[in-house]
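Re: that chain you flagged

S.,

Sorry for the slow reply, it's been a week of failed gels. I finally had a moment to sit down with the sequence you sent. For the record, here it is as I used it:
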Amino acid sequence: MAHSLQHICAPTSPRYIRFDDVRDGLTFVKAARGRALRKRPKRKPDQPGMYSFAFARYSAVMTPTCAVLLDLDGTLIDSRPGILASSLAALRALGHEPDETLDIRRAIGPPLEDMMQVLLRSYGDDRVGDAVAAYRQHYGESGFLGSEPYPGIGNSLREMQQAGLRIHLATSKREIFARRILDHLEFAAYFDGIHGSVPGGALDHKPELLAHILSEHDISPSCSVMVGDRRYDISGAHAVRMRGLGVLWGYGTRDELEAAGADQLVESTADLARTVRSMVGER
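Prediction finished late last night. Pasting the structure tokens below so you have them in one place:
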């Protein structure tokens, strides 16, 4: 059976090849298995033709699966109220008395462990694991409800879906919480896949998470786009050979996104779907 295009494009397997390594149908058939073609036997009436087999594989490599991968916090939703409430609860659980006006804007985006480490630093406290556990308990009970979609995001998701784009969520938030948020906001139906961090920490960082999504859904990085509001989204995209689209309504700044090398920036949710459509499929 012919291998899918996306397996050929996946960056993590040594037997895969890149598009620019493909020169013609025969080269593709040779490279896909990493060995030279055997001498083709004479075609018999009841035997499928090797030419049609090679053409089918060659056609597959010309039609990659392209997708848009979307961050959650600061891109689709303003999650600051819920994150603040759960952060304050976590600090109190460890015996601290945090200021109710604590500014956590710049701490949103990285993995939760990194965020809690920053918040604990001012107390000289290194109990990051305990803080994370307390945070997740509160967030799972009520914190996740403190999230509001940015104005126009629902329309943007609808436009991208109607345009036939494959849409995947790629968030550092725990996947179980991300699913509950999207269900609560009635956004889940727009997504072909919902992905976030998992117990054990294997997908806590954006490069590993994006590589997992590309492999899991047979997505070609060269024609796909990662959309996010922080430098972690842009650098993560570039680490797996995707382009990064930075949004300017979230928690990151223009300077941060430009310094990270964002391929494009978008200022308004009204322009998000159009900008994504212009980028997906380009190489």
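What I noticed first: The longest strand covers residues 166-174.

Talk soon,
D.
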